[in-house]
């Protein structure tokens, strides 16, 4: 079938199943992911993931992250990462990573597979966390700020380790490993300087009384109102491109680029136009395609050892729940909020699949482990909104 036919079937199926789940008081993304599983190689074998669909999925990820960045505040995220929230973010990576390494050692995997297993279990997918929090209207909450900051730090840490591994030469030595660490470290430093430097310039302009709102209005007068969305996308794409050029996933840079765009940059009416345009595209079209595409990645035929799969699923879920709850309690969050953070951190999807696919393409892991990691990403993403609605939302609503 052609790309457009595949896209039509995917969108209609994802939207229908998504609405069906909403009717039963469940998040739409669960139905959207199940649509991908049903249409993919596991059940009907109608649609397969291909480069064209992958490109559309990447665009969806970009716009979901862009939408979230506009709704959140740059200072809030930085304050979490530089304050007590750093403890939560660190635990959110170390405990799951150590758990994954433990499972790998228990099943006698070679060192490279052990590391990649730990990396994939430690990941939290930023776009997935953002979309779930948007679904429950909680982006402006402590749960969201700590979850998103932890997801960002988790992804950066995992990509740092991945960068070190990919830069290693064939023959390992202490010198070559040290060089690889330094090579990846300076790239992270460059990305950090780029983001914080841009934020510093904006703050200085505001302190000197410069009304950035006027600049945006003049730009709109020059290129037209309809180009506002395009200008915003180009701005955020610059940050995503810099991030990708330095060896990190474009999601990291795009998210911080969107975070830097303050509401005060636009008139209230302009901002509402942007928000409406973004939500129409992401919620109505690209969002369902993205989550359905995650389901397409899964194939049950390549799974072999049932006990190994069960061990990975159990460890991946409970390690994230524990790290989120423990870290949240240590920084003073209420029990319900801390558990909510742990549940949100459990959603993987995008970044975990990125790392797993890189490892598979480079020959670091085999097809069996690759499919197991895909299953882990699909299952953890599927159950995250269900757990959140069941165990967190009722208690949050009681307190509000």
Please describe what this structure looks like.
With 400 residues, this protein is mainly alpha-helical. The chain has a single domain, classed as Na+/H+ antiporter like fold (Up-down Bundle), CATH 1.20.1530. Helices cover 79% and strands 0% of the residues. Helix 11 crosses helix 12 (250-259) and helix 14 packs across helix 17. 46% of the residues are buried.
Secondary-structure element series: HHHHHHHHHHHHHHHHHH
As a whole number of angstroms, the C-alpha radius of gyration is 21 Å
What would you call the shape?
globular
Kindly report how far apart the N and C termini lie: 50 Å
> What would the average pLDDT be, to the nearest integer?
82
Structural class: mainly alpha
Helical percentage: over 70%
**Per DSSP, what share of the residues sits in E-state strands of 2 or more residues?**
under 5%
Q: Main β-sheet, in a few words?
A: none
Structurally, the number of domains stands at 1
CATH fold-type name: Na+/H+ antiporter like fold
User: In total, how many beta strands?
Assistant: 0
CATH architecture classification: Up-down Bundle
Number of helical elements = 18
Q: Which regions have little confidence, pLDDT < 50, spanning 5+ residues? A: none
Summarize the structure.
By secondary structure, this protein is mostly helical. The chain has helices at 3-23, 28-39, 51-71, 74-82, 85-106, 111-122, 126-135, 142-166, 174-207, 212-223, 228-245, 250-259, 268-296, 306-330, 335-345, 350-361, 367-391, 393-399. The protein has one domain (3-399): Na+/H+ antiporter like fold (Up-down Bundle), CATH 1.20.1530.20.
């Amino acid at each position: 079938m052609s790309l457009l036919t595949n896209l039509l079937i995917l969108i209609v199926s994802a939207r229908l199943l998504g609405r069906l789940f909403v009717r039963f008081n469940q998040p739409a993304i669960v139905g959207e992911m199940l649509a991908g599983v049903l249409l993919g190689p596991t059940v009907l074998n109608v649609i397969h993931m291909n480069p064209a669909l992958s490109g559309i999925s990447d665009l969806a990820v970009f716009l979901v992250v862009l939408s979230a960045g506009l709704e959140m505040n740059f200072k809030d995220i930085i304050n979490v990462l530089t304050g007590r929230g750093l403890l939560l973010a660190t635990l959110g990576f170390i405990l799951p990573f150590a758990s994954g390494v433990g499972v790998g050692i228990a099943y006698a995997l070679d060192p490279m597979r052990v590391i990649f297993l730990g990396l994939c279990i430690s990941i939290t997918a930023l776009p997935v966390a953002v979309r779930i929090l948007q679904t429950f209207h909680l982006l402006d909450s402590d749960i969201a700020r700590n979850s998103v900051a932890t997801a960002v730090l988790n992804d950066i840490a995992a990509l740092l380790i991945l960068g070190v591994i990919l830069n290693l030469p064939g023959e390992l030595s202490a010198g070559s490993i040290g060089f690889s660490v330094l090579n990846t470290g300076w790239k992270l430093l460059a990305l950090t300087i780029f983001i914080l430097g841009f934020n510093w310039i904006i703050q200085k302009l505001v302190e000197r009384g410069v009304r950035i709102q006027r600049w945006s209005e003049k730009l709109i007068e020059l290129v037209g109102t309809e180009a506002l969305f395009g200008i915003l996308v180009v701005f955020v794409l610059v940050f995503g491109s810099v991030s990708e050029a330095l060896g990190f996933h474009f999601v990291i840079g795009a998210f911080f680029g969107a975070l830097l765009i303050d509401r005060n940059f636009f008139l209230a009416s302009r901002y509402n136009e942007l928000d409406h345009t973004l939500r129409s595209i992401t919620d109505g079209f690209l969002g369902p395609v993205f989550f359905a595409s995650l389901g397409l990645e899964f194939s049950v035929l390549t799974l072999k050892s049932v006990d190994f799969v069960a061990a990975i699923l159990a460890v991946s879920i409970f390690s994230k729940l524990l790290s989120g709850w423990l870290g949240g309690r240590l920084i003073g969050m209420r029990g319900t909020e801390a558990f909510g953070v742990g549940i949100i951190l459990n959603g993987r999807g995008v970044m975990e699949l990125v790392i797993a696919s890189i490892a598979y393409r480079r020959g670091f892991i085999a097809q069996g482990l690759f499919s197991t990691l895909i299953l882990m990403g699909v299952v953890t993403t599927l159950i995250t909104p269900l757990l959140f609605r069941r165990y967190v939302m009722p208690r949050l609503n009681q307190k509000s």
